[in-house]
Specification:
The protein has about 300 residues and is mainly α. The chain has 13 helices and two strands.
């Protein structure tokens, strides 16, 4: 795990800090270099998920032991999984934006806002389903009458639950296109069951030794990556393809997600460094990079 976590950390530093991730552009030429960089970026994320899955399947002391020396490691693993999976702050962001657009007064309670945000998501999902769409980013492509219907559904859900007067029709007519743009967030949440499935894809039975499982090699992953209908590979691609730290698109929350992943991986590297091992297994430069990235990204980033 240590080596693969470090490899991922260097790659995230290259993409986010050095801003040399042009190979992630959707229109990047399919040169051998660009193909390698994209494939290996997905491999490095998948490899860490594979080690986490292997450790859980083995019920290793690294996650399940009672020694306080592994507490930081457990916390870093939880943070990594959460950074990939959790998106309630995005839902609340959309809620607050449409409420401001329609002059709807929201309650101060974070829990209440979270429940309202979940209802907005349900209404947006309804809109996707009715119009045969897959992603929120497709909502602005709808015709104005369709945008109006979805906007009315969202607005009514909020005003009814808050005991407020309905949003006037002329207000919705003027703002439905902007509302759909607000709703058009680009996110790639990798839910925990999906993480587990990717982890299972990334490991194989070990031939012997102390471990039951090993992560597959890059060559085997290349074969999987080339499969056009591999849903687990598609989820890895969706996390990074099109991310552009130099010119982030409005509503693309994947950049913030990757920053949170970076902090979690950096914390994982620091936790491994702090383990009471017979020998040091990490390059001091990698440990220094981890500390710099924790300082650069000191807390969960809630917005794009």
């Amino acid at each position: 795990m240590a080596a693969d976590a470090v490899n991922l950390l260097w790659r995230l530093d290259e993409i986010l800090v050095k801003q040399r991730g042009q190979y992630l552009d959707e229109g990047a030429p399919a040169t051998p270099f660009n193909q390698y960089k994209l494939t290996s970026t997905c491999f490095r994320i998948g490899a860490v998920l594979g080690w986490i899955r292997a450790i859980k399947r083995e019920q290793s002391y690294l996650l399940y032991g009672e020694d306080t020396s592994v507490d930081a490691l457990r916390a870093a693993v939880i943070a990594f999984e959460s950074a990939l999976a959790d998106g309630p702050h995005v839902e609340v962001h959309v809620l607050e934006q449409v409420a401001e657009l329609w002059s709807i007064a929201l309650p101060p309670s974070a829990d209440h806002r979270a429940r309202l945000a979940a209802q907005v998501v349900a209404d947006m999902q309804y809109g996707l389903s009715v119009h045969g769409l897959t992603h929120y980013r497709e909502l602005p492509e709808l015709a104005d009458p369709q945008k109006l219907v979805i906007s009315r559904r969202i607005a009514d859900s909020l005003t009814v639950r808050l005991g407020l007067e309905p949003v006037p029709e002329d207000t919705l007519l003027k703002s439905c296109s902007e509302a759909m743009s607000v709703a058009a967030v680009n996110q790639a949440w990798m839910y925990r069951d999906w993480q587990q499935a990717i982890g299972d894809l990334m490991i194989q039975e070990s031939d012997g030794g102390l471990r039951r499982y090993d992560v597959i090699g890059y060559g085997a992953f290349e074969t999987l990556f080339a499969e056009p209908d591999n849903q687990r590979i598609a989820r890895l691609r969706a996390l990074v393809v099109g991310v552009d730290p130099t010119n982030p698109l409005p509503g693309d929350f994947r950049l913030a997600q990757l920053r949170n992943v970076t902090r979690a991986v950096a914390s994982l590297v620091c936790a491994i460094e702090a383990l009471d091992l017979n020998r040091k297994i990490l390059d001091p430069q990698a440990c220094e990079l981890a500390r710099r990235l924790i300082e650069r990204y000191p807390a969960v980033t809630p917005a794009c």
